[in-house]
From TrEMBL:
UniProt record, GO biological process: polyketide metabolic process
Name this polypeptide is given: SnoaL-like domain-containing protein
Cited InterPro entries: Cyclase_SnoaL-like, NTF2-like_dom_sf, SnoaL-like
Pfam families, A to Z: SnoaL_2
Domain SnoaL-like span(s) in chain numbering: 139-235
Length: 257
């Protein structure tokens, strides 16, 4: 049986935990471009990080996996130099992985105000015929609300207050989002999206990769949305502070899609 690109990615990520050598063959060693700025470029950089892991410390539990053309993207519960939640994006050429992006955030010790974790919730992919429609909806939402701040358009993207939230600090519903933003503002903490770099989707799930600032820090935002009946129904995210150029192990940039 032919192994799918999704299966290749699951095997490669799991090999971080199991130390299996075979999945490395799914990477094209001549063309592998690394966008995790803390990791050296190419296969050598990937191997160096694995060698630095404390023995038997790594854990990899893939929660969701999606495919959009030559891209496979995942939502994963990690122990990787400590408990983390991450999104990974892999680009394939001729059945081999040639490029990798990711965003990692420390896993919180407690649930959010609505008793949700960063990873729980549905993972079934439906509405494959609506993939492009859902990608357009979500891109418009991020553009209108998060980039341009046109808050008068906010309610149109949701079914009333029905909105399930997995951000560690935010409760369900538009009401929960509003309260969280008000509280952050009262503490002098502001979030600004400046640029959308990539929109990927499969069926009812859409991932948006954006760049901006959070609490005055240069930040990479990965937001995963579940769409239901033409409205945004659920949201997961991972935010990562982008390290300065002086600390970077490669020159490929955090984005560069």
């Amino acid at each position: 049986m032919k192994i799918t690109n999704k299966q290749k990615v699951v095997s490669l990520l799991k090999s971080i935990e199991t130390e299996a050598k075979e999945p490395i063959a799914f990477i094209n060693p001549q063309k592998y471009i690394q966008h995790n700025l803390a990791v050296g470029d190419g296969l050598a950089g990937f191997g160096e990080v694995l060698h630095q892991l404390p023995p038997n410390s790594a854990k990899v539990n893939n929660i969701r996996i999606f495919k959009d053309g030559d891209f496979v993207f995942t939502h994963t519960d990690y122990n990787f130099f400590g408990p983390k939640i991450g999104f990974d994006i892999f680009r394939f050429e001729n059945g081999k992985i040639v490029e990798h992006w990711d965003n990692l955030q420390e896993k919180p010790a407690s649930l959010n105000p609505s008793n949700r974790s960063m990873i729980d919730g549905p993972n079934e992919i439906t509405d494959l015929d609506k993939t492009q429609e859902n990608k357009t909806l979500v891109k418009n939402f991020v553009t209108d609300i998060l980039v341009n701040g046109n808050m008068q358009k906010l309610a149109g993207y949701f079914d009333g207050d029905k909105y399930l939230q997995h951000n560690p600090q935010v409760a369900d519903g538009l009401s929960g989002l509003g309260k969280a933003l008000e509280f952050m503002a009262s503490q002098g903490v502001f979030m600004k999206y400046n640029t959308i770099h990539k929109v990927l989707g499969e069926g009812n799930f859409v991932l948006v990769v954006s760049e901006g600032t959070f609490a005055d820090k240069h930040t990479s935002f990965y937001d995963l949305f579940r769409v239901e009946n033409g409205k945004i129904a659920e949201h997961w995210d991972v935010m990562e502070t982008i390290i300065p150029e002086s600390e970077r192990k490669n020159n490929n940039g955090k984005f560069g899609f």
